[in-house]
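Hi P.,

Sorry for the delay on this. The queue was packed all week, but I finally got your sequence through. Input first:
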Amino acid sequence: MRVAASGKSAVAAHLDAMLKTLLPVAAAGGLLLASAGFAHAERAVPIPAARVDVPATPGTQTAVLAGGCFWGMEAVFERVKGVKTVTAGYAGGTRGDASYPQVSTETTRHAEAVRIVFDPREVSYATLLRVYFSIAHDPTQLNRQGPDSGPSYRSAIFPQDARQAAVARAYIAQLGQAKSFGKPIVTRIEQGAFYPAEAYHQNFYDRNPNHPYIVAWDKPKVAAFKAGFPTLAR
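Then the structure:
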């Protein structure tokens, strides 16, 4: 979601222009997402659980995942049981240019991402990856998600240790062998630090429930998560 750094007013102004180029809003509410190339935004893709996982340990663990606009990613993972905090931010580039105006130039190597702090005794890393692949984003879209395009919207996992990297690689291979998606998975395994985004991006979904972008692209995603993972949703 490309906006200027000045906050909500800039977001609204950008959307007024952007929505004129998108598909008409359906009578039932929300955009016709399937026609826009994001068909599984309205339902969870039925994919198998991972065969391997990171062992549960005392305390919390952290996952960093990138998959399009961080507003929707944050909204989904905030509703997962066992998740303690979710922070919107940037991963894959350097601290010096980890700001929205610079990331928006698509020259900084950052991806919009979320940092998820979770209790592994309540929800495992591989379970978070299952939500990530099934509903949080479309892992078959290269450098784009829905209406947003550019490498900052790429599908990427930033493992926090060797165990997470091994689980992520194994799960991508497992889903590929199972032909869980109609197209190849393009999700990358990357290294890079995470930098929190500006304050106006944090908890954007909950603070702006009637925002046109949220209504069109993220509310269907959250509803699909609740329907597809009823025992995991809170």
